[in-house]
Write a structure and sequence with these properties.
Chain lengths: 324, 377
C-alpha cells in the first residue's frame, strides 16, 4: 500500500513523477481542512526519501517508517503550537537553519509547514528567502486552506497543488471498506463531510460527534416554533465560552439547503439523511422563496462572523428570522 | 544487554558524547544517549543531527544489546556514583536499564535503540591524517571569525580546503577574515573544499584536548558529512550546503606600510584602549609613524569617548613605509590577538579605508584581515 492518500489521483501522479525525477523546490497544497493535504505531503516526503526497491514510497523501509512515525531526521514538520494562535517567526527560523545543512541520511531534506496561513506576517516574510532559493537538496511542502490566505509573495514561490473534495460516493466507499461502517452511517458521514475524507474518517470513528450534531440540530429545530425569547436565549447559550459558532451555522445551513433540495425535487442529494421524513414534512409547508431568502441570511451571518461581528447578535438575527 | 564497566570510564565517555546531545529537539530520542555493545566494547553515542559524537569504552560484555537512556539523568547519576564497577542490565520488554554500583541500584527508563537515527561512520574512503596539535591550532585561529548570525548560512561555517598535502581553513563574517594553512601528515584527498559548521570544529577542538595520536579525517562519499576519528572517539558533522565565497582572493596582495610590533605590547595597548572604546562604537585608532634617524618607529594606540574620557598608549614598532592612521574594531583586534602565538605581529596597511592584514612574524601560515572603521578627523 504505497500512497496513503486516497483519491486525488492527478496530484499523486504528479508528485510520484516528481519524486522519481526532479522535484520542484516548493509545493503548496491547498484545499479545505481535513481533505488530506498533510497526508499527501507526508506521502510525498516518504516517496522522496524512500530507500526501498521498486515503487516509492514502499512503506516498508526504515526511512518510510521513520517518516510515518515522525522521527526521520531529514523531515521536519512545522505547525502552530497548541497554546499559540499563530506560527511564530522562531519556528520558521529554526527550520531554516536545519535546511542549510546537507541531508542527514536521506536524499532530500523536507520541511512541511502545516497551515502556512497561520504564520503571521513577520514569519511569512522571514521565510521568503528560503522559499525562493532553498539549498539544492531541499523540498518545501506548504499546506493552506485557500491560496488567497497566503501572501502573494509566498504563493508565487511555490508550485501549486490545489486539492478538490472527493466525490461523496468515493468517501462512502472508503468508510464502508476500511472502517466497516454500515451503509447508512457511511452515507451520512460521507455527505456531511462534503468530500473531506479526513473529516469523514474521524466522524465515523467518533460516535459522539454525529450524536452531538443530531442533538444540536434538534435544539435548533425545536427553537423555531418557540418564539423570540427562546430563540434569543438559545443564541446566548450557543455563543457562550468558546463554542464553535461557525459549526452551528454550517449545520443550520446544511438543514436549510436540504429543504431547498427537497423542495426542488432533488431529495437524492440531501445531507441529513437521518431526518429525511422531517425534511419532507417541513418542506411541504414552506415556500421555496422563503427558504432561499433564509439561506442568504445564514450565509450573511457566517460572513459577518468572519469579519468579527458579535457572534451572539449574528446568531440571534439568524434564529429570529427562521421561517415557520 | 548485560555489561559491566568502570565508573571512571563510563563517566568520561558520557562527558564526551553529552556535548552532542540536542538541548531541545523535535525528536525526543535525541535527548538520549545510545548505549550499545560493539565488538567487545561499549559504544556510547549522541547526536543533535548536526554533529554526532561516538565513543567506545572498555567493558566486560556478557550479553549483546542496545538501548537509549536520557543523557542528563544518566550523566548526573554516573557522575555521583563511587569509582567502582558498574553492572548494567537491560530489560528489553520495558526498555529499562538497571544499573548497580557498590550498594546503589537504579532503573532508568529508556527508549528503543531502533528509534535512534543511525550516526554515519567513516567508510574506507581516502583517509587523511592530521597532527592533533596542528588541528587544534588551526581551529582556534580560524573558527572564531565565522559569522554568528544566520542570515548568510555559509558564513556560519568554516571553509576547509584540501590541496595536495595541505589543509587550509578560512572563516569570514563580512568584517574580518581568518585564514590558516597547515600540513596534512598522511594521505591525500586531491583538491576538495567543504564547509564545516563552526560549532562542530569548536567541539572537535575540545574533544581532541589531550589527544596525541594523529586525527583521521574522512569525507563521506555523498559529501554530506565529515568524520573526525581519534583513537577512541569519533565526531561526525553535517556539512553546510552551498558555495563559500572566494574569500582567499580578498586578501590584499600588496601593502604600502608594514609595521612590526611586539605581540605582548600590542595586546596590552589594545586591552587598555578597549575600556574607553566600549562607549565609542569600539573604535581603536592606530597611528603608525616610521622611525627617523633620531627616533625609532612607533605606533600610537588611542581610544576616546565623549562620556568616559580617553586613553593613549605608545608601543615601539619597526615601520617600513609611509606614516598612516587607521581605525579598527577593538573586539576584532583583541579576538585576533588572543589566538596569535608568535612574539611579533606584522600589520600591513594600504590606506585608512582599506582592510588591514595581520600576520605572525616568522610564519606565513596565518593571515587575518580586518575591515577598518570609518572615523571623522
Amino acid at each position: 500500500m504505497p500512497w496513503n492518500t486516497i483519491g486525488h489521483e492527478w496530484a499523486v501522479n504528479l508528485l510520484a513523477r516528481a519524486a522519481a525525477t526532479q522535484p520542484s523546490h516548493a509545493y503548496l497544497f491547498t484545499g479545505p481542512a481535513q481533505i488530506g493535504k498533510l497526508t499527501l505531503a507526508l506521502d510525498f516526503a516518504r516517496a522522496l526519501n524512500c530507500v526501498g526497491p521498486g515503487e516509492r514510497p514502499c512503506g516498508q523501509c526504515r526511512s518510510c517508517q521513520a517518516i510515518a512515525a515522525g522521527r526521520h531526521p531529514d523531515v521536519s514538520l512545522v505547525r502552530r503550537l497548541p497554546d499559540k494562535s499563530e506560527i511564530a517567526v522562531k519556528q520558521l527560523r529554526d527550520v531554516q537553519n536545519e535546511l542549510n545543512l546537507r541531508p542527514y541520511e536521506g536524499r532530500w531534506r523536507v520541511a512541511i509547514i502545516e497551515n502556512m496561513h497561520e504564520a503571521n506576517l513577520n514569519a511569512a516574510n522571514a521565510f521568503l528567502k528560503t522559499l525562493e532559493e532553498p539549498a539544492p537538496q531541499v523540498v518545501l511542502l506548504l499546506t493552506a486552506n485557500t491560496p488567497e490566505a497566503l501572501l502573494l509573495t509566498v504563493r508565487s514561490r511555490c508550485q501549486s497543488v490545489p486539492m478538490r473534495p472527493l466525490p461523496i460516493t468515493q468517501v462512502e466507499e472508503v468508510l464502508r471498506e476500511r472502517f466497516g461502517a454500515d451503509s447508512e452511517r457511511a452515507a451520512m458521514a460521507a455527505r456531511l463531510s462534503g468530500g473531506r475524507l479526513g473529516w469523514a474518517m474521524e466522524a465515523i470513528q467518533d460516535e459522539e460527534r454525529l450524536a452531538a450534531r443530531r442533538e444540536l440540530l434538534q435544539t435548533l429545530l425545536d427553537s423555531v416554533p418557540q418564539g423570540r425569547s427562546a430563540q434569543i436565549e438559545l443564541a446566548g447559550r450557543l455563543t457562550r465560552g468558546d463554542r464553535d459558532v461557525r459549526g452551528v451555522l454550517d449545520l443550520w445551513l446544511s438543514w436549510w439547503r436540504d429543504l431547498l433540495l427537497v423542495k426542488g425535487q432533488c431529495a437524492g442529494a440531501i445531507v441529513n439523511l437521518d431526518e429525511r421524513e422531517r425534511l419532507l414534512r417541513d418542506a411541504g409547508h414552506l415556500e421555496l422563496r422563503a427558504i432561499g431568502r433564509y439561506l442568504t441570511i445564514i450565509e450573511d451571518a457566517r460572513q459577518q462572523i468572519e469579519q468579527n461581528v458579535n457572534a451572539q447578535l449574528a446568531l440571534e438575527v439568524v434564529l429570529i428570522n427562521a421561517p415557520v | 544487554m548485560k555489561v559491566s564497566c568502570l565508573q571512571e570510564n563510563l563517566h568520561k565517555g558520557l562527558g564526551l558524547v553529552a556535548r552532542a546531545v540536542a538541548s531541545r529537539s523535535t525528536l525526543p530520542v535525541l535527548n538520549n544517549i545510545l548505549i550499545a555493545t560493539d565488538q567487545g566494547r561499549l559504544k556510547l553515542a549522541a547526536t543533535d543531527l548536526t554533529i554526532g559524537i561516538t565513543t567506545w569504552i572498555g567493558a566486560q560484555i556478557e550479553e549483546e544489546g542496545a538501548t537509549t537512556v536520557p543523557s542528563k539523568l544518566l550523566g548526573e547519576f554516573v557522575n555521583s556514583l563511587p569509582p567502582e564497577k558498574i553492572d548494567m542490565q537491560l530489560n528489553v520488554r520495558t526498555q529499562t536499564l538497571n544499573l548497580k554500583c557498590s550498594r546503589f541500584e537504579s532503573n532508568i527508563k529508556g527508549m528503543d535503540a531502533q528509534e535512534f537515527p543511525p550516526i554515519p561512520t567513516a567508510g574506507p574512503e581516502n583517509k587523511l591524517k592530521l597532527d592533533p596539535d596542528t588541528l587544534r591550532a588551526i581551529i582556534s585561529q580560524v573558527a572564531f571569525a565565522a559569522a554568528a548570525d544566520e542570515s548568510r548560512p555559509v558564513l556560519t561555517g568554516v571553509l576547509a580546503k584540501f590541496d595536495d598535502g595541505k589543509i587550509t581553513l578560512a572563516a569570514a563574517d563580512g568584517f574580518r577574515l581568518s585564514v590558516r594553512t597547515g600540513t596534512v601528515s598522511e594521505g591525500k584527498a586531491g583538491v576538495t573544499a567543504i564547509i564545516i559548521p563552526a560549532r562542530a570544529l569548536i567541539e572537535l577542538s575540545r574533544m581532541i584536548g589531550d589527544e596525541e595520536e594523529p586525527i583521521e579525517v574522512t569525507i563521506t562519499k555523498n559529501r554530506n558529512q565529515a568524520v573526525f576519528h581519534t583513537s577512541s572517539t569519533e565526531l561526525v558533522t553535517q556539512l553546510v550546503e552551498g558555495n563559500y565565497p572566494d574569500v582567499l582572493s580578498l586578501v590584499p596582495k600588496s601593502h604600502n606600510t608594514r609595521t612590526v610590533v611586539g605581540t605582548v605590547d600590542f595586546v596590552k595597548a589594545v586591552k587598555l584602549a578597549s575600556f574607553f572604546a566600549r562607549d565609542a562604537s569600539n573604535i581603536i585608532r592606530m597611528t603608525i609613524e616610521p622611525g627617523t634617524d633620531l627616533a625609532p618607529g612607533r605606533m600610537i594606540v588611542r581610544a576616546e569617548s565623549q562620556e568616559v574620557g580617553d586613553q593613549v598608549g605608545e608601543i615601539d614598532a619597526t615601520v617600513d613605509g609611509p606614516a598612516i592612521e587607521v581605525a579598527f574594531n577593538a573586539k576584532y583586534l583583541s579576538e585576533m590577538l588572543a589566538v596569535v602565538d608568535a612574539a611579533q605581529v606584522a600589520i600591513e596597511t594600504n590606506a585608512p579605508e582599506k582592510p588591514g592584514v595581520f600576520k605572525m612574524v616568522g610564519s606565513d601560515e596565518f593571515v587575518h584581515v580586518i575591515m577598518p572603521m570609518h572615523v571623522n578627523r
